[in-house]
Amino acid sequence: MDPHVVIVGGGFGGLYAAKALLKHKPGEPTIRVTLIDRRNHHLFQPLLYQVATAGLSPGNIAAPLRGILRGQKNVQVLMAEVVNLDAPGNAVILADGSRIGYDYLIIATGASHSYFGNDQWAADAPGLKTLEDALEIRRRVLLAYEQAERTEDPAEREALLTFVVIGGGPTGLELAGALGEMAHLTLRENFRRIDPAEAKIILIEGVDRLLPPYPPDLSAKAEEMVTRLGVTVLTKTRVTGVTDRYVTVSTGESTREIPCRTVLWAAGVQASPLGKVVQSQTGAELDRVGRVIVEPDLSVVGFPNLFVIGDLAQFAHGVERPLPGVAPVAMQQGKYVAEVIRERLAGTSPEMFRYHDKGSMATIGRAAAVAQIGRWKLSGYLAWLSWLFIHLLYLAGFDNRMLVFLQWLWNYFTYTRGVRLIVNRGINEPREKGK
Amino acid sequence: MDPHVVIVGGGFGGLYAAKALLKHKPGEPTIRVTLIDRRNHHLFQPLLYQVATAGLSPGNIAAPLRGILRGQKNVQVLMAEVVNLDAPGNAVILADGSRIGYDYLIIATGASHSYFGNDQWAADAPGLKTLEDALEIRRRVLLAYEQAERTEDPAEREALLTFVVIGGGPTGLELAGALGEMAHLTLRENFRRIDPAEAKIILIEGVDRLLPPYPPDLSAKAEEMVTRLGVTVLTKTRVTGVTDRYVTVSTGESTREIPCRTVLWAAGVQASPLGKVVQSQTGAELDRVGRVIVEPDLSVVGFPNLFVIGDLAQFAHGVERPLPGVAPVAMQQGKYVAEVIRERLAGTSPEMFRYHDKGSMATIGRAAAVAQIGRWKLSGYLAWLSWLFIHLLYLAGFDNRMLVFLQWLWNYFTYTRGVRLIVNRGINEPREKGK
After folding, report:
1. Which of A38, A406, A426 is closest, CB to CB, to B406?
2. Would the CB atoms of A418 and B400 count as touching at under 8 Å?
3. Which of A40, A63, A410 sits opposite B399 (nearest CB)?
4. Rounded to whole angstroms, how far apart are CA atoms B88 and A317?
């Protein structure tokens, strides 16, 4: 029987591992691959904020896993949820109780945001991780403008037109920038009683600057650019409470309440629950946010046929600090693990994983981004063009890269965001509480 | 104070009325318009089946009403639900109890499908009227294939791969044709255990042919074309039961059960509930399906400032049979009523409404359609090209007409349907019962 690799999770890590397991040299066995995901699609997460802010459609940034891997006959895609693991018995266990045995297992189920122990904030401050999250955020933002247009109460109107984004990392910056553009450019002339440009967009960050892992001068540039889009940046500000009426913030000694109806959460990291499952089955250590601490070859200590990659893994070998939870790390780890499995089957032993850092970038809005590529630091138009180019490049494998590009061009030149649709619940239906 | 026109409903009728109320001749008063809709978007309904079958994104066929009417300063768009009417007092009443007064009122809230008194079938046989309906149908169809790939039970697999479409009018034909294409072309090579081409698609019609209002030879052509796409057509067949396990059909004397997991409803017409409200307020007559029987100028008898247009109106003056519930009728009635209001304000009296029938067409699939234009009858490739051309033409006013065209071209040449996304509920979550 050909060796069987099970991959759990169809994000960047899992998908790139599956793709890399296609190739085999003459004489090597064909590797059977089963890719399991709860969803039927791969999501191009770096552009998810564009769906949340009505610039792109879900179909532009997500593609069915089966479609992507259509031609790769050795891969079986299964839409199912892995809830447990039998590491000594080499099997994963699905939600319906069935077992799937493996020779090698790759776990790549990623991470989500963390409310730092305040999970009750989730209903009023949704985060951005899935298509459903993005559509819910889009719905709330658009509905707030609709309700502001209808209300007769000036205080209520002001609260409806106050949008709070919590977390000054790349996602928070992207969301706040896009909300600023929406208020000042997209919705111009759309309303008769309110002026969307009067909307307040507040970006809150706990430390003393935006984009903390970036060099301070790029943080300063980012703050300058996002402020120009009409966003108010509050640094050194901690959030101590979130309700459906206001956000409570604390700056040093003083505490105040910001009345608002739309709060978006873009802070914290929390590893997928499969991290804990791996720990209980293998005794592997987890880090503070629940990521599995992996060996130099990305396997779990004592289980050389069990790999954890991407946002669920904490890799700290030969690097100054653990690798960040970004798409390029996951992609490279996916490819690397495929190579490790192939070498093991051939009886050779692979070198340790090394991350090739090609730089990092964050976008803020129209023609505004910051980028760090090696020793180069870019900001403004050129950084934005690089961002655009690189993101389009990596949409490869998506049929609709060209359509996304055209949609972008269209949005850019016409200042529109065409996908301003409110679906699922209307103006008379209350917000759903809890997840 | 400038005269105030309230329009209820932002479909083809309401939107075209609002647009036509922009123009005014020198010396005429500016007409203030309030357009009220429960949703924030206008929906290009003729292409809704493309969203249900994963060919287009919601954003391709829907556009925010505010965006469309952005430049028309005399129009105020309100996202709200009209639940009642005070016809003698010239006011509409919203769900929150507030009243909006009018000088002229245009009601254009359309119609939906009818389960002929079997509303309990709705949960297992969703119809196609809103974006939510389309996304739910897409989800069910895609999930059925996913579950078929996972099940070990051959009878269950067969039921999962049986898709029943009830109603052989244009919508039923479009849905069945698209499901046939999906099974035979789009999903080819996507699965490893099932062959999507083995899916059974069954189209059920009560009378003796598809497309009953069309000439019999076009009905025969349509049946031939849809059969070629792998669809089984059952005519003279009545549906007597729908559950989540099977559809019960009766042909003449015999009755049988078709085991299936996906049933789509494309039969019957039921006017919007505002028809009954109009009746109780004005004493207007309703027809069998609840449409308001209107005067030659589309007003309600005894209320010359209250108009009902589009699918909610039954217009039978100077025509052989009442006008059909299609987009061109609604568009022309919207424009006509705007003209009537302008003439009334000028003190002149308008001629009665006359429908200019430019023909009708139904599409079946790739390069397959039937059309009747005056005495011309077309079928096949040429009819399909006409259908494509006319639908793109009427997407005017939508920013993204070009993008829809490109998406279509892409789908056509690559046989793909890129928007095959399952959102909202996953594979372990049961179907929602009831609406």
Report:
1. A406
2. yes
3. A410
4. 80
> Across the A/B interface, how many CB contacts are shorter than 8 Å?
153
Contacts of B38 in chain A (CB under 8 A): 426-428
Cβ-based contacts of B407 with chain A (< 8 Å):
400, 403
Q: In what helix (H) or strand (E) does residue A84 lie, and over which residues does it extend?
A: strand A82-86
Q: Which amino acid makes up residue B6?
A: V
Containing B122, the helix (H) or strand (E) segment is none
- pTM score: 0.91
How near does any CA of chain B get to the CA of A41, in Å?
6
Q: Do B64 and A420 touch (CB under 8 A)?
A: yes
Of B81, B192, B399, the CB nearest to A76: B192
Report the candidate in B219, B218, B217 with the shortest Cα–Cα distance to residue B207: B219
Partner-chain contact A190 B66, CB within 8 Å: yes
> At CA B183, angle to CA B181 and CA B184, rounded to 5?
65
Residues of B acting as catalytic residues: 174
pLDDT tens for the 435 residues of chain B, in order: 789 999 999 999 999 999 999 866 677 788 999 999 999 999 999 889 999 999 888 988 888 999 889 889 999 999 999 999 999 999 999 999 999 999 999 999 999 999 999 999 999 999 999 999 999 999 999 999 999 999 999 999 999 999 999 999 999 999 999 999 999 998 999 999 999 999 999 999 999 999 998 999 999 999 999 999 999 999 999 999 999 999 999 998 899 999 999 999 999 999 999 999 999 999 999 999 999 999 999 999 999 999 999 999 999 999 989 999 999 999 999 999 999 999 999 899 889 999 998 888 899 988 889 998 888 898 988 888 888 888 877 775 565 666 777 777 777 777 677 778 887 766 666 565 443
Residue of A nearest to B98 (CA): A150
C-alpha A402/C-alpha B395 separation (Å) is: 21
Chain A residue closest in CA terms to B194:
A76
Contacts of B96 in chain A (CB under 8 A): 428
Contacts of A307 (CB under 8 A, 6+ apart): A104, A105, A106, A107, A294, A297, A298, A299, A300, A337, A340
Which domains are seen in chain B, by residue range?
4-38+80-113+270-346 (3.50.50.60), 119-267 (3.50.50.100)
A421 to B96: CB separation less than 8 angstroms, yes or no: no
Token pair, residue B106, equals 């245009």
**CA distance linking residue B128 with residue B43, whole number of Å:** 12
Among candidates B423, B417, B435, B368, which has minimal Cα distance to B60?
B417
From the CA of A56, how many Å to the nearest CA of chain B?
8
B297: part of which helix (H) or strand (E)? none
Q: Which of B38, B142, B426 sits opposite A426 (nearest CB)?
A: B38
ipTM: 0.88
Residue B405, both tokens: 């065209």
Query: Catalytic residues of A, which ones?
Result: 174
Chain B residues whose CB is inside 8 A of the A402 CB are 406, 410
Number of alpha helices (DSSP H) and beta strands (DSSP E) in chain A = 12, 25
CA B405 – CA B401 distance, rounded (Å)? 6
Q: Report the alpha-carbon distance of residue B316 to residue B323 in Å, rounded.
A: 7
Distance from CA of B239 to the nearest CA of A (A): 30
